[in-house]
Hints:
Blueprint: H1 2-14, H2 18-32, H3 36-53, H4 56-67, E1 82-86, E2 90-91, E3 101-102, H5 104-120, E4 124-127, H6 138-148, H7 165-177, E5 183-189, H8 193-202, E6 206-212, H9 231-254
Parallel strand pairs: 1-4, 1-5, 5-6
Antiparallel strand pairs: 2-3
Helix pairs in contact: 2-3, 4-9, 7-8, 8-9
Amino acid sequence: MPHTMLLTLASALLQPPGFFLALVLVSLVLLVLGLRTLGWSLLLAACLGLYLSATGAGARWLVMPLENRYPPLPHLQPGVGAIVVLGGGEVARPPGDGGDMANARTLMRLQAAAKLAKLSGLPIVPSGGAPRYGAPPEAATMARLLRQSFAVDNPIWIEGKSFNTAANAYDSKKLLAGHGIQRVYLVTSALHMPRAMAWFRRAGLDPIPVPCDYRLDRNLGSGYESWLPRAIYLEASSEAIHEYLGLFWLHLQERGWVRGRANSRQ
């Protein structure tokens, strides 16, 4: 879909490292055009931004406000009808497996959902559509893993149409409405939880957050090691900025400045 492709391209160019690489290209063009002060300033800003986003200190500044928004589930809550666990991606046809496999992020979410299911006895709704054309829904892979790898025998209701967080919410709402369920446990990565909660509430559900898959060590100090660049911190920073952009996009829809699920009739 052109609209989806456009959003994907925009997201790649607005978060590290794409944003800083684009800034470098712009600065080089400005230098070629003779705008040396502006060009060197943008180049310095790009290098500094790329460095900070690849450090523990920079990643912590971006990640912690999102991951700390919702605390871990203290105990089971009353009146909950199901557990919704969101897909986080999968690895297509890994060698020797013979089928698609959930990535590490999705496995962490499934682990949390399986533990909660065994404690509560509630049905699980794995939510996630086909990751590519002609492939089975990610939710089908998640359901298989819940049975085979996590030994879950609770009912599993597959929501296999959604392709983003907004669709996760609205498509899960439609499925759950058929069972008369509105209050659910929502299982996803702690970094993703603020945006997921916003969309599920927008869809008319009453979600209880069950965050998992934390990106950064809570004991990460402020010593010299936190200022050493590492790929893992760059990835965390990039994912955090992706979440901030998603929340900003939702805000624009709610204000009516752009069209989308947040301001359309369902």
